[in-house]
C-alpha cells in the first residue's frame, strides 16, 4: 500500500510538472504570433464583461470597441487560429489545475483578440457553468451566437457547439414576458383566448393588467363569446360594463352566445346597447331571449345568425327578431337562421326587405306531417314555402342555402314568375338545398324537386349542391337535367326549362343523393367543361344495383367526362364496381380517376354490402394511379379491418390525408373574383 501511495504521488508530481511545462509552451506560442510584432503583448484591462452582463448590454460591443489604454492603440484584433488555439489550451490547462480565475482571464483575452469568432464565447461560457453561474453562461453563449449569426450552422462546427451548449439552459433562460414582444405579436397571441380567460390574465401582475387593458389592445376585448363554461362563472352586469370599457368606442364588434344559459336577457341587452359598432351577432338559440326592437344604432352590423322557436311570436322572447333585423337592414350582408315565422307562409308582404343581403341560410324546425292528400286542416298542416318571393325581399343575394327542414317548395308558384324570370336573383352564384326530415313517403318531395329544378335555371349560378332525402325508384329514376323529362314539361308547358339551362358559369355540382343520368349530366356540364370552369362534380350511381351491371354501364356512359383537366374534386356514391378477378388492373374506378390530371380531392361511398377487403384493394389501386391529397370515406363499412391498415399506411407514404367522414360544405362558399 505504501508503494502504491509513493507511486501515485510521483505520478501526480510528474503530471503537474508536465502541465506547467505545457503552460510555458502555450505562452511561448502566443508570443510568437505576428500580431505582437516582436514586442510583448499585454491584455487590455479596460473591458469589464461582468458589469456588461449584469447590465444586459452587448458583450460583443464591449469586446470590440471598449478600450482606452495603450494596448488598443498598439495592437489590433487577431484571428490567427494558432494564437486562439494556444489561449484556449492554456485556459483549459488552468481549468484543470483548478485556477478558474486565470482560466477566465485567458477566455477574456480570446474575446479581446477575436470577438467575431465563437471560441472565446464558448470557453467563457463553459467556465461560467463550472462556477455555477448559469445565467452568465446563457448570456455568453447567446452573445457568441449573435456575433456570428450570419454564419450557417453547418459551416461552423463551433457555432453548432455554442448552440448545443446553450440547449440545457434554453427552457430556463429563454422564457420571455410575452408582453415584451411587439404589439402585433402580443395581439395575435392573446386573440386565441376568450374574454373570460383574458380576465384571468389581468391577475398576473399590475403591468399585465395595465398593458392588456390599454387602448393599444382594445381589439382583444371586442369579441364577447359566451360558452357553456360560463354557466357558473357568468359575468355580472358591472363586469360586462367594465369589460366593454376596454373595447373602446363602439364596444364589442362580435357577440357570440353558444349556450342557452350562458347569457341572461339583461346581459344581452346591455351588450347590444353598449356595442353600437357591432359587426357580428351569433346566438345559438334565443329560447327566452329577445333582441331590442326600439333601437337603430347598429349601422355596421353585417352578420347575424340565430335559432328561434316556431311557437313564439315575432319580436317576442324566443321569437323571430324581425324588427331588430329591419333596423339593421341597411348594412346586413349575411343572415343565417332556423325558425321561419308563420307569417312568411301566410303573407308575402310580411317578409321584410333586405336589399344589401349577400348570403342567406334559412332552415326550419321539423313539423308533424299530415296524412298525405287529405283535406283536413289542422295545426300540423304543411304549407308550401314561397321561395320565389324571397327574390323580392332579398334581391341581391349571391348565395342561398335552403334547409334543412324547410317544408316543401310550392311548384305552382313558378307560373307566376314566367314573365319575370330575368328578375329572379340575377346575381345568385351559389344554391344549396337540404331536404326536410323524411317520415316515410313524402307527397311533397316531388314539388320541391320541380321547384329546385327551376331555381337551377338561374343563369348566374356557379355552385350547385342538392340533397334529397327520398330515393328515386329503380325503374323510373328520372333525371332533373335530361332536357326531355315530361314531368316538367307537363307541369309548365309555357316555360322552356332548357333555354335557361346553359350553365355556362358552373364551377361545381355536388350531390351525394341525387343521381344524374349521363346524358342529363352532359346537358348540364358540357358548356362548363368546354370553358374549363368545372372544378367539382359528384356521380351518384343507380340504386338497387346488386349485380354491378348498372354501375358499370353508368360509368361507361361518362366517357365524355374522362380527362377533364379543370376538375380537382370528385365524388362517387352508391357504386358497385367490384372487380371479378384478383388482378388489380381490372378495377374500373381507379382507371377512370387516373384520367384526371389535376384531381386532388376524392369522396367515396360504395354500396354498404361491399366486403371491406375488396374496398381496401380498390383504395390501394386508386392511390397507385392518382396524385390525390385528400380522400373522404363516406362509408358505413367497418374500416378497422387489417386490410384498411395497409391503406392508411399507403396513404401516409404518399402524403394523402384519409378522412373517414363526409366533406363539410363550406359556407359561405369562396367565390373567385
TrEMBL record:
UniProt xrefs under InterPro entries:
F-box-like_dom_sf, F-box_dom, LRR_dom_sf, TPR-like_helical_dom_sf
Entries under SMART domains matching the protein: FBOX
**Domain F-box: where?**
175-224
One matching Pfam family: F-box-like
Protein's recorded name? F-box domain-containing protein
The species is Claviceps purpurea (strain 20.1)
Amino acid at each position: 500500500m505504501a508503494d502504491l501511495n509513493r507511486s501515485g504521488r510521483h505520478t501526480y508530481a510528474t503530471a503537474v510538472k508536465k502541465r506547467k511545462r505545457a503552460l510555458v509552451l502555450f505562452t511561448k506560442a502566443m508570443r510568437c504570433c505576428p500580431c505582437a510584432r516582436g514586442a510583448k503583448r499585454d491584455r487590455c484591462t479596460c473591458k469589464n464583461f461582468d458589469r456588461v452582463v449584469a447590465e444586459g448590454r452587448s458583450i460583443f460591443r464591449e469586446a470590440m470597441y471598449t478600450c482606452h489604454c495603450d494596448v488598443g492603440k498598439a495592437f489590433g484584433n487577431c484571428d490567427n487560429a494558432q494564437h486562439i488555439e494556444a489561449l484556449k489550451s492554456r485556459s483549459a490547462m488552468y481549468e484543470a489545475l483548478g485556477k478558474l480565475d486565470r482560466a477566465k482571464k485567458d477566455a477574456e483575452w480570446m474575446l479581446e483578440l477575436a470577438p467575431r469568432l465563437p471560441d472565446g464565447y464558448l470557453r467563457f461560457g463553459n467556465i461560467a457553468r463550472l462556477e455555477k453561474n448559469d445565467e452568465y453562461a446563457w448570456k455568453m453563449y447567446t452573445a457568441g451566437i449573435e456575433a456570428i449569426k450570419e454564419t450557417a450552422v453547418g459551416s461552423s462546427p463551433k457555432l453548432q457547439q455554442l448552440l448545443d451548449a446553450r440547449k440545457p439552459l434554453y427552457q430556463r433562460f429563454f422564457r420571455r414576458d410575452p408582453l415584451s414582444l411587439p404589439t402585433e405579436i402580443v395581439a395575435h397571441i392573446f386573440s386565441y383566448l376568450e374574454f373570460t380567460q383574458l380576465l384571468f390574465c389581468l391577475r398576473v401582475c399590475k403591468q399585465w393588467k395595465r398593458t392588456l387593458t390599454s387602448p393599444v389592445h382594445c381589439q382583444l376585448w371586442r369579441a364577447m363569446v359566451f360558452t357553456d363554461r360560463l354557466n357558473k362563472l357568468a359575468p355580472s352586469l358591472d363586469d360586462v360594463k367594465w369589460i366593454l370599457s376596454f373595447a373602446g368606442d363602439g364596444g364589442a364588434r362580435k357577440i357570440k352566445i353558444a349556450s342557452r344559459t350562458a347569457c341572461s336577457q339583461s346581459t344581452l341587452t346591455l351588450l347590444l346597447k353598449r356595442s353600437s359598432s357591432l359587426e357580428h351577432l351569433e346566438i345559438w338559440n334565443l329560447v327566452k331571449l329577445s333582441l331590442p326592437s326600439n333601437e337603430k344604432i347598429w349601422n355596421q352590423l353585417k352578420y347575424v345568425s340565430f335559432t328561434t322557436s316556431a311557437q313564439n311570436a315575432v319580436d317576442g322572447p324566443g321569437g323571430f327578431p324581425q324588427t331588430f333585423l329591419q333596423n339593421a337592414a341597411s348594412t346586413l350582408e349575411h343572415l343565417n337562421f332556423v325558425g321561419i315565422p308563420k307569417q312568411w307562409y301566410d303573407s308575402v308582404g310580411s317578409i321584410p326587405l333586405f336589399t344589401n343581403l349577400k348570403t342567406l341560410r334559412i332552415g326550419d324546425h321539423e313539423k308533424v306531417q299530415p296524412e298525405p292528400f287529405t283535406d283536413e286542416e289542422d295545426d300540423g298542416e304543411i304549407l308550401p314555402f314561397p321561395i320565389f318571393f324571397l327574390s323580392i325581399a332579398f334581391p341581391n343575394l349571391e348565395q342561398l342555402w335552403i334547409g334543412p327542414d324547410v317544408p316543401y317548395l310550392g311548384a305552382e308558384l313558378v307560373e307566376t314568375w314566367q314573365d319575370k324570370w330575368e328578375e329572379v336573383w340575377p346575381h345568385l352564384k351559389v344554391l344549396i338545398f337540404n331536404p326536410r326530415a323524411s317520415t316515410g313517403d313524402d307527397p311533397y318531395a316531388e314539388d320541391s324537386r320541380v321547384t329546385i329544378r327551376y331555381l337551377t335555371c338561374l343563369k348566374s349560378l356557379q355552385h350547385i349542391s342538392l340533397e334529397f332525402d327520398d330515393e328515386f325508384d329503380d325503374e323510373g329514376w328520372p333525371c332533373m337535367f335530361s332536357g326531355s323529362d315530361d314531368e316538367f314539361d307537363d307541369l309548365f308547358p309555357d316555360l322552356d326549362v332548357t333555354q335557361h339551362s346553359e350553365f355556362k358559369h358552373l364551377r361545381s355540382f355536388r350531390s351525394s343523393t341525387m343521381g344524374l343520368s349521363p346524358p342529363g349530366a352532359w346537358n348540364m356540364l358540357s358548356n362548363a367543361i368546354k370553358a374549363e370552369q368545372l372544378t367539382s362534380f359528384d356521380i351518384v350511381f343507380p340504386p338497387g344495383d346488386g349485380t354491378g351491371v348498372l354501375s358499370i354501364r353508368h360509368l361507361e356512359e361518362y366517357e365524355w367526362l374522362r380527362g377533364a383537366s379543370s376538375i380537382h374534386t370528385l365524388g362517387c356514391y352508391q357504386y358497385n364496381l367490384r372487380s371479378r378477378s384478383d388482378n388489380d388492373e381490372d378495377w374500373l374506378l381507379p382507371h377512370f380517376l387516373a384520367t384526371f390530371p389535376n384531381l386532388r380531392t376524392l369522396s367515396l361511398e360504395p354500396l354498404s354490402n361491399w366486403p371491406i377487403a375488396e374496398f381496401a384493394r380498390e383504395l390501394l389501386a386508386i392511390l397507385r394511379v392518382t396524385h390525390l391529397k385528400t380522400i373522404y370515406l363516406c362509408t358505413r363499412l367497418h374500416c378497422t379491418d387489417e386490410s384498411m391498415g395497409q391503406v392508411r399506411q399507403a396513404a401516409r407514404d404518399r402524403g394523402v390525408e384519409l378522412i373517414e367522414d363526409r366533406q363539410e360544405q363550406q359556407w359561405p362558399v369562396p367565390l373567385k373574383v
